[in-house]
């Protein structure tokens, strides 16, 4: 297995302001939940101290402690830790409290109502997470809530139960905090849906009104000659200005809009290749196009690509599709057969962000690739991190043994370039040469490429400030 370096907890990202607002609302929910735990825990803990109900007191102090830790984590922006900690511990502590909150004549159990709030909150907090967090925890809370609501299991010895005179008040407090918590979760979900719909509409409008464009980042050889470009999508928003793909691609993928957008990118890229074919200075260039996993998985993806390529009349090998390792998490056989079909028609294939995913070497051997693209996260710290050096060396020699071209992305300094060249990586892309450019500037660059100075003036030859 390779790396997995960039995989991390994903805060649900819905692009533009949505993710920020969502994060702020989630933070508010965690602050509310943790403060309630502290207040209820300390309030009841103090009361049970006076009543010498030690077991009940210690459970309420445990609740207050959970609240305090979660509050600390939330205030220091460790919201995921706060969420993980509070949902797991609350599930356990509330279940234990329920065992003491046994129904008695005239007073129903009410502590289990908190499990509903925890279920709803965990569904919201872990939306983009694995099945255990996203579904397992809410279901566990829900089942526990059902069991406590429908049965009278629990401790029946009055010595361990809350004093009879407080039971009726407890029911009111528990139900009220539960309803407030659930209302907060629903309000957050509702706001997320509204914001998401607004951006989805914006994306549709952008597509219909031609607000997307492609920028082209040169790919160069060691002698500085431009051998091709990567087409990078830009959204020229009439109000917000230029929006980078990191802000909207994930939403486009979630909503399925990536299919028409990807289609537009491919048509535009092929039209550009046709244009380049007319000019001897650009006729030999290849153009790499990013393809999302969800786009590639469309049943008619291959036929669509081939139709666009054939209609445009370009030489198919000039088009290079950049795929990522995320494609390989399922249906590898189908992925391989689709890639093989594209390859049999001459379309070139590159594995993007190589080393960051989980592609086993076994899979890699089976993929009909032309190129491996070393991810910029390895290039960034290349000169300071011996692990990155070792990884890049391995990736270069791996591509050699698999007979694949290799290109390093994110090359920003002369020193990185020299190291890569000395280690047999002979094609590069990065700010050292050029940032992604609008088409006219890219074509000017091809005519007069900016070859980096071979003798660095200082050991910190770095990315120009305006690109940093
Ligand atoms: P990517 O495919 O890894 O593209 C490289 C990204 O690194 C680009 O960001 C590029 O501007 C940036 N970059 C290039 N050289 C350097 C460098 O020297 N240093 C640093 N720090 N960054 C560098 P960009 O354009 O914001 O694109 C981000 C991602 O959005 C792309 O990552 C790609 O995954 C996705 N994307 C872009 N265009 C498309 C598209 O048409 N379709 C799809 N599905 N995804 C796209
Ligand atoms: Ca790429
Ligand atoms: Ca990349």
Overview of the structural elements:
This protein has 468 residues and is of the alpha/beta class. The chain folds into two domains: 182 residues, no CATH class; 257 residues, EAL domain (TIM Barrel). The protein contains 16 helices and nine strands. It has an eight-stranded mixed beta barrel, surrounded by five helices. Strand 6, helix 12 and strand 7 form a beta-alpha-beta unit. The radius of gyration is 29 Å and the shape is elongated. Bound molecules: ligand C2E and calcium ion (CA) (2 copies). One calcium ion binds next to strand 6.
Descriptive key words:
disordered C terminus; 468 residues; binds calcium ion; 55% helix; elongated; 16 helices
**Please, how many domains?**
2
Total beta strand runs: 9
Task: State the CATH architecture of the largest domain.
Answer: Alpha-Beta Barrel
CATH-derived topology of the largest domain: TIM Barrel
How does the major sheet shape up? Answer: 8 strands, mixed, barrel
State the helix count: 16
Quickly give the structural class: alpha/beta
Q: Runs with pLDDT <50, length 5+?
A: 1-17, 455-468
End-to-end CA span: 32 Å
The set of bound ligands, ions and cofactors reads: ligand C2E, calcium ion
Q: Order of helices and strands, N to C?
A: HHHHHHEEEHHEHHEHEHEHHEHEH
In round numbers, the mean pLDDT is: 89
């Amino acid at each position: 297995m390779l790396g997995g370096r960039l995989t991390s907890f994903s805060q649900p990202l819905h692009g533009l302001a949505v993710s920020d607002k969502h994060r702020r609302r989630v933070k508010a929910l965690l602050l509310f939940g943790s403060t309630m735990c502290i207040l209820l825990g300390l309030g009841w803990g103090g009361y049970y101290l006076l009543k010498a109900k030690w077991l009940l007191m210690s459970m309420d102090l445990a609740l207050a402690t959970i609240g305090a830790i979660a509050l600390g984590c939330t205030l220091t922006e460790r919201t995921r830790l706060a969420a993980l900690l509070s949902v797991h511990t609350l599930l356990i502590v509330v279940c234990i409290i329920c065992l003491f909150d046994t129904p008695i004549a005239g007073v129903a159990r009410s502590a289990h109502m908190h499990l509903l709030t925890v279920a709803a909150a965990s569904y919201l907090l872990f939306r983009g997470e694995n099945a255990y967090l996203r579904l397992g925890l809410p279901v566990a809370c829900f089942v526990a809530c059902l069991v406590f609501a429908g049965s009278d299991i629990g401790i029946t010895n009055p010595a361990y139960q809350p004093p009879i005179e407080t039971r009726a008040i407890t029911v009111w407090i528990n139900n009220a905090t539960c309803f407030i918590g659930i209302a907060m979760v629903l309000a957050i979900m509702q706001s997320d849906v509204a914001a998401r719909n607004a951006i989805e509409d914006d994306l549709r409008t952008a597509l219909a009104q031609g607000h997307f464009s492609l920028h082209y980042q040169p790919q160069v050889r060691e002698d500085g000659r431009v051998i091709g470009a990567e087409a990078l999508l830009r959204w020229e928003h009439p109000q917000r200005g230029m929006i980078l793909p990191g802000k909207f691609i994930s939403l486009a993928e979630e909503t399925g809009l990536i299919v028409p957008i990807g289609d537009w990118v491919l048509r535009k890229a092929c039209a550009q290749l046709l244009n380049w074919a007319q000019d001897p200075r650009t006729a030999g260039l290849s153009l790499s196009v990013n393809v999302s996993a969800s786009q590639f998985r469309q049943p008619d993806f291959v036929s669509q690509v081939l139709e666009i390529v054939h209609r445009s009349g370009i030489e198919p090998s000039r088009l290079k599709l950049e795929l990522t390792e995320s494609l390989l998490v399922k249906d590898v056989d189908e992925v391989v057969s689709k890639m093989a079909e594209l390859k049999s028609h001459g379309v070139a294939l590159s594995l993007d962000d190589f080393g960051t995913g989980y592609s086993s070497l076994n899979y890699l051997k089976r993929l009909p690739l032309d190129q491996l693209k070393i991810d910029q996260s390895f290039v960034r710290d290349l000169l300071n991190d011996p692990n990155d050096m070792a990884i890049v060396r391995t990736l270069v020699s791996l591509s050699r043994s698999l007979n694949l071209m290799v290109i390093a992305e994110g090359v920003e300094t002369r020193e990185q370039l020299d190291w890569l060249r000395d280690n047999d990586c002979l094609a590069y892309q990065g700010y050292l040469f050029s940032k992604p450019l609008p088409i006219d500037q890219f074509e000017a660059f091809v005519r007069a490429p900016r070859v980096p100075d071979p003798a660095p003036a200082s050991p910190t030859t770095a990315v120009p400030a305006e690109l940093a």
